[in-house]
Design brief:
Blueprint lengths: L6 E2 L2 H23 L4 E7 L3 H17 L2 E2 L2 E3 L5 H12 L6 E4 L9 H7 L11 H9 L7 H12 L8 E5 L6 H10 L3 E5 L6 H5 L4 E4 L17 E4 L3 E4 L5 E4 L4 H4 L5 E2 L6 H22 L1
Parallel strand pairs: 1-12, 2-3, 2-4, 2-5, 6-7, 6-8, 8-9, 9-12
Antiparallel strand pairs: 10-11
């Protein structure tokens, strides 16, 4: 019997398509509004991975015509100083989106800072007001990574109504909002996690399997239902025996490619979509502010 090879859900290609749509929307709106959209990414300290992420976000902004108001602060910056900066950005009419790059130095509380961002400028979609809007099914800014997953599933016309969806991971960043978005799309949703008993039995029932636990290689081929759609949100840096490091997901990609119908690569799957949704949230805020 021939084994199938899963079709890849290409997040990189879809992100480029979204960038083109955003560029057109900004070009058409800028003449009426009188300014471009603006995004402020705040970074504290010298984490090399964070610096690379911020550079990527700023490049993406430049690509579509979003003005960057990013600020880089020394490691010893106080909570009070950052709160003052966020308050000023909340009132700055040029800024439509604000994002605090994580992780933060240990003396700073990310939740406290997130609460300071105005919900309508919450580019990450993580403010309690926006999460509450998601729970209630109201319009609002959505958490970028799960919103990107939903766009990928829609792009490849993957049916969700009535399907069994399993989300492995329960973080406020991905797992919980992901489950709510799938539920809103009429999927039947199970949330599993590191303390779930017999994870394999749970995942084997999934028509749509979202791996977002942050554990490299957690999902193996025997845990996947034949013909399932597998979305790998994991982004883990591992080092091999020779000392070389590489990015891997939560899924055993090669083995699962022979079982699943659709699969996201790592990198190139969900990652590019997260940045695209960040820009989309910023442009949504920009257009909403113009209507008010």
């Amino acid at each position: 019997m021939e084994t199938q090879t899963a079709k890849l859900l290409d997040g990189k290609a879809l992100a480029e398509k979204i960038y083109h749509q955003l560029t057109v929307a900004i070009t058409e709106s800028q003449a009426k509004i009188g300014r471009p959209p603006g995004l402020a990414v705040l970074m504290v300290g010298d984490n090399p991975a964070s610096a690379a992420y911020v550079r990527n976000k700023e490049k993406a902004c430049a690509k579509v015509g979003i003005a960057s108001f990013g600020k880089h602060f020394p490691t010893n910056t106080s909570l009070g100083e950052l709160e003052e900066v966020i308050a000023a950005l909340n009132h700055d009419p040029r800024v439509d989106g604000i994002l605090v790059q994580l992780p933060l130095p240990k003396h700073l509380d990310a939740v406290t800072l997130l609460h300071q961002i105005h919900p309508d400028k919450d580019a990450d979609g993580l403010h309690p007001v926006n999460l509450g809007r998601l729970v209630r099914g109201e319009a609002g800014l959505r958490s970028c990574t799960p919103a990107g997953v939903m766009q990928l599933l829609a792009e490849y016309k993957i049916p969700l109504v009535g399907k069994q969806a399993v989300v492995v991971g329960r973080s406020i960043l991905v797992g919980k909002p992901m489950a709510l978005m799938l539920l809103a799309a009429d999927a039947t949703v199970t949330i599993a996690h590191s303390r779930s008993h017999n994870l394999k039995a749970i995942t084997q029932n999934a028509d749509i399997l979202i791996a977002a636990a942050g554990l490299p290689g957690l999902i193996t081929a025997d845990m996947v239902k034949p013909g399932a759609v597998v979305v790998d949100v994991g982004m883990n840096r591992v080092t091999d025996a020779s000392g070389k490091s590489r990015l891997v997901g939560d899924v055993h990609l090669e083995a699962i490619a022979d079982v699943a119908a659709f699969l996201t690569p790592v990198p190139g799957g969900v990652g590019p979509m997260t940045v695209a949704m960040l820009l989309q949230n910023t442009v949504s805020s920009y257009l909403r502010a113009a209507r008010e």
